[in-house]
Amino acid sequence: MIDSSDNRNALGRALFDRHGAKKMTQTNLWGGRFQKPPAEALKRFNDSISFDINLVEEDIAGSVAWAQALGRAHVITAAETEIILGALHEIQIEHRTSGFADFGNQEDVHSFVEARLAETIGPLAGRLHTGRSRNDQVATDLRLWLCQAVRTARNHTVDVAEVLAIHAQAEAGTPMPGYTHLQQAEVITFGHWCMAYVAMLMRDVDRFDSLLKRADECPLGSGALAGTPLDLDRHRLARALGFDRPTENSLDAVSDRDTAVEYLFAVTLLFGHMSRLAEDLIIYSTQEFGFVELPDEYATGSSRMPQKKNPDVLELVRGHAGRLIGELTGLLALLKGLPLAYNKDLQLDKEPLFRTAALLNDAMPALAGLLSGLKVHQEVMYEKASSDSLLATEISDSMAARGVPFREAHEIVSKRVAEAAKLKMSLRELGPSVAITERDLRALDVDLALSRKTSFGGSAPWRVRAAAKEAKTKIAVLRGAAQLVQDESRTAAQAPEAMRSGMDRADENSFSTEGGQTP
């Protein structure tokens, strides 16, 4: 928390009282060179407060860190820093408790916070923007928001992976048909199917983690495009906001939206994976397949047909996967022709991000809940997995094991399958032939077929069980790492708030190393 105004020293209180409060009025951060106010048509088209108010927490956090940096650089006094911090705290509390009933006809979240600050402390609020531009301000706000959004997406992904790993361990030995081209191919287990999606989700988690490493740099202090004229320690400023480092080039920093694109890509690919899972389960839950049954609390009915149990969660995941491709493509198209540095087009980067985060925060818990309550019909799967046609490859493998070239064995078994289909008989019923022995036919056993798939990553039950156990161990480590990052982020966020007067008590009289003096 930012220090409360109740803790201001006597000088700070006197200055605060002298500035006085005033009613919030519309604040234009750029209007001095214009002789006429903005037209209403312009404001309707131009203003972004309706959606970028979602960045108010981040805007306040950036302003706190900036005020403290100004205090350390002696641009504002210690008392003025404390007044600003106290007022920002009040705005933060208002947002967290009751929200804002009125945005005061402000253009965007930055002008809103500054106007609310001016309402509280008067002209002193205008000094907070010294050396800062809305360009580096919004880049910082969005980067802070994105880092948290990526962590949230990562954690939701781990949740779904864990549910699937639990199923995989429990169903490691449950045979089911495996498919290629949606035609029965070879026998696998339901646990092996679960682990295929765990593998996809673990790659998604890795993508989110690597994205966080690239995103962990702070644009604040880049100014409009050329940097700030103030003698500020940007490394310290970055750390105060929980970042690892400052951005390296001011021109790039204010127009860089790579993190936004990568976030949309990572979520889009995640939903691509989950759309495939959804399609599988939609099929598997039909009466024609009957492999699984969806939990009542994650299915819907029909207003007309009383027998229906509809997989709406899965269908919506599949549908939203397509919409996300549009969100990603739209942002890429927005960015592809922009000259350096900032352009107003970048105002359009936020809404797809907010929509995507809201979707993910609703969809992934619903999907995890559905998977947790999924009922597996083991006997149906076993029956379907025991068909001769599904096990035909096992005969070819048996023949190859006794020296018949596989291509020859494949041809022989293929013709035998066609013969059995023509006679409406099974391969077992046809019995041995000149080329196919009784021993070869004994390979038509689902459990024997599974037991042979012992290669690493294969579908032998013991392999699946071991893979599921290892995945659960990795997930536990990932959860621990996520908690550590969360704790570190909380500490970093609290650290600047603990500084009264905008500077460390033990470091009040020191300057940054960028200023050329030893701290």
Structural key phrases:
single chain, Fumarase C, Chain A, domain 2, Fumarase C, Chain B, domain 1, 519 residues
Largest sheet: 2 strands, antiparallel
The CATH superfamily of the domain at 136-216 and 240-383 and 470-481 is identified as Fumarase/aspartase (Central domain)
* CATH A-level architecture of the domain at 136-216 and 240-383 and 470-481: Up-down Bundle
Percentage of residues in helical conformation: 55-70%
| CATH first level of the domain at 136-216 and 240-383 and 470-481 | Mainly Alpha
Instruction: Count the beta strands.
Output: 6
Q: Which residues form runs of ≥5 with pLDDT under 50? A: 1-22, 495-519
* Radius of gyration over all CA atoms, rounded: 31 Å
Mean of pLDDT:
90
Helix and strand composition category: mainly alpha
Please state how the strands of the largest beta sheet are arranged side by side: 1-2
* Strand content range: under 5%
Which term fits the overall shape? Answer: elongated
Order of helices and strands: HHHHHHHEEHEHEHHEHHEHHHHHHH
Total DSSP helices: 20
- For the termini, the CA-CA separation is 26 Å
- Under CATH, the topology of the domain at 136-216 and 240-383 and 470-481 can be stated as Fumarase C, Chain A, domain 2
What does it look like?
Strand 1 (175-180) and strand 2 form a beta hairpin. This protein is 59% helix and 4% strand. Helix 4 packs antiparallel against helix 5 (78-97), helix 8 runs antiparallel to helix 11 and helix 12 runs antiparallel to helix 13 (350-372). Residues 1-22 and 495-519 have low confidence and may be disordered. The strands form three sheets. A two-stranded antiparallel sheet has the order 1-2. It has helices spanning 10-19, 40-46, 49-52, 56-72, 78-97, 109-121, 134-170, 190-215, 234-240, 250-253, 258-284, 312-335, 350-372, 378-385, 392-401, 406-422, 427-430, 438-441, 446-451, 461-497; strands at 175-180, 183-189, 217-218, 245-246, 292-293, 375-376.
